[in-house]
Design goal:
The chain is of the alpha/beta class and about 220 residues long. The chain contains six helices and 15 strands. The strands form four sheets. Strands 1, 4, 5, 6, 7, 8, 10 and 12 form an eight-stranded mixed sheet that branches. β4, α3 and β5 form a beta-alpha-beta unit. α1 packs antiparallel against α2. The longest helix has 19 residues. About 35% of the residues are buried. The structure holds 1-O-pyrophosphono-5-O-phosphono-alpha-D-ribofuranose and uracil. The site of 1-O-pyrophosphono-5-O-phosphono-alpha-D-ribofuranose (PRP) has 23 residues, from β4, β6, β9, α4 and α6.
Length: about 220
């Protein structure tokens, strides 16, 4: 694949384990069970990168030998927000890393003809302004769903949001960055383009269908 120039606001996670697993995800022969496991593992590795600058605060801790000062993540619990359906596949992996995280949900689907998102569900913790959010969706295609989700999160008070996806198209990254320049975007692959039906090329197909076996 030819190299794609860097895009504003985007961090491409180039870790070899992430890249290896993304290649397995792309393979049309990868069955649902393995696909689900890979999304889970990649999401955990991506969350590790995406949380690298979370604020810390000192805390006293007593070891078996003496009292010392350690560090803990400051502030209220991190909140994961999967975009339904496919974002659900990323939640459990990240919860292995951050077991106390809260989980909100945003229900959106893409209209097949217009490719614009249709909203059907929204629920996040009430004290949104005080929390750090990780918005999750494996696919960033036209960017319509991510922009709608970010609009809704901000309307509900969220101020610190990072968006983690697995495969992104340049048009989607540009659209999200133009609408929400304060939101860092993390992806595992920046692909070439969208086809006429809004699918990412080379991509991995329909992430929701591959995760849930609904093709
Ligand atoms: C997929 C994907 C994203 C969206 C990306 O969901 O999980 O949410 O498409 O496309 P966009 O960037 O052009 O908006 P889909 O709409 O297929 O819904 P589903 O997860 O319920 O199948
Ligand atoms: N949604 C998907 O699941 N895959 C794509 O390639 C684009 C949108």
């Amino acid at each position: 694949m030819p190299t794609t120039p860097a895009l504003n606001g985007l961090t491409l996670v180039r870790h070899p384990l992430v890249q290896h697993k993304v290649t397995l995800l792309r393979d049309k022969a990868t069955p649902t069970k393995i696909f689900k496991e890979l999304v889970d593992e990649i999401a955990m590795l991506m969350a590790y990168e995406a949380t690298i600058d979370l604020a810390l605060e000192p805390v006293g801790v007593e070891t078996p030998l003496e009292q010392t000062i350690g560090q803990r993540v400051a502030g209220k619990k991190l909140t994961l927000v999967p975009i339904l359906r496919a974002g659900l596949g990323m939640v459990e992996g990240i919860l292995k890393l951050v077991p106390s995280a809260r989980v909100g949900h945003i229900g959106l689907y893409r209209d097949h003809d217009t490719l614009e998102p249709v909203a059907y569900y929204f629920k996040i913790p009430g004290d949104a302004a005080e929390r750090d959010f990780l918005l999750l969706d494996p696919m960033l295609a036209t960017g319509g769903s991510a922009v709608a989700a970010l609009d809704a999160l901000k309307k509900a008070g969220a101020q610190r949001i990072r968006f983690i996806c697995l495969v992104a198209a340049p048009a989607g990254v540009e659209r999200v960055h133009a609408a929400h320049p304060d939101v860092p975007i993390f992806c595992a692959a920046l692909d070439r383009e969208l086809n006429e039906r809004g699918y990412i090329l080379p991509g991995l197909g329909d992430a929701g269908d591959r995760l849930f076996g609904t093709r």
